[in-house]
């Protein structure tokens, strides 16, 4: 089994665009064709394909050609990298805020 590394910078860049986030939300329901994914958006297919290229290069999605139809799938693995990073940030901020709270409680009576 190949272990892949996911770049949080690439993932965050890919998710920085509302169109790409909507595509991810749609794929959260299940795999679908490129044409079905593109139908809610009022943009030309080449422009929409640029969004899919960014999502695919970030490894958030992958595609498979079935006959004449390209099907898009959501890859959930890069999201765990983001989740771990966000959890680490949250933990560090909670520790700092608890330390500040303790400091303020100790110094409250000394002023």
From TrEMBL:
InterPro entries: ArsR-like_HTH, HTH_ArsR_DNA-bd_dom, WH-like_DNA-bd_sf, WH_DNA-bd_sf. SMART domains: HTH_ARSR. GO terms for molecular function: DNA-binding transcription factor activity. SUPFAM superfamilies: Winged helix' DNA-binding domain. Coiled coil: none annotated. NCBIfam families: HTH_metalloreg. This is Transcriptional regulator. It comes from Leptospira bourretii. The lineage of its organism: Bacteria, Pseudomonadati, Spirochaetota, Spirochaetia, Leptospirales.
């Amino acid at each position: 089994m190949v272990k892949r590394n996911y770049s949080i910078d690439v993932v965050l860049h890919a998710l920085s665009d509302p169109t790409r986030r909507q595509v991810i939300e749609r794929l959260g329901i299940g795999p679908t064709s490129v044409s079905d994914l593109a139908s809610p958006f009022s943009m030309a297919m080449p422009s929409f394909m640029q969004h899919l290229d960014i999502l695919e290069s970030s490894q958030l999605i992958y595609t498979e050609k079935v006959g004449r139809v390209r099907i898009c799938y959501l890859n959930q693995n890069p999201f765990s990298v983001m989740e771990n990073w966000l959890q680490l940030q949250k933990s560090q901020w909670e520790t700092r805020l608890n330390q500040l709270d303790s400091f303020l409680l100790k110094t409250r009576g000394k002023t």
